[in-house]
Design brief:
The chain has 73 residues and is mainly alpha-helical. Helix content is 92%, strand content 0%.
């Protein structure tokens, strides 16, 4: 997953949350519940993608720092 995918998932979550909100106003509770669940799933997917990218960058930084230390002797 990438940060682009995280952004896409967050956009989907926003949409699903809005639909859920509107369904509550229309007293369509089953549909509101379904959309709340899909919004949550999209947020979870976005969080995972962001966490993977953070860990990748931290690992990359550690590798760069180790290489610098090794080069300095």
């Amino acid at each position: 997953m990438s940060l682009h995918e995280a952004s896409r998932q967050l956009e989907a979550a926003i949409h699903d949350a809005r639909v859920s909100f509107d369904c509550i106003a229309l007293d369509e509770l089953d549909r509101a519940h379904t959309n709340a669940i899909t919004a949550r799933a999209a947020v979870d997917a976005a969080e995972y993608a962001i966490r993977v990218e953070v860990e990748r960058r931290e690992s990359e930084e550690e590798g760069t720092a180790a290489a610098r230390e090794e080069a300095q002797g």
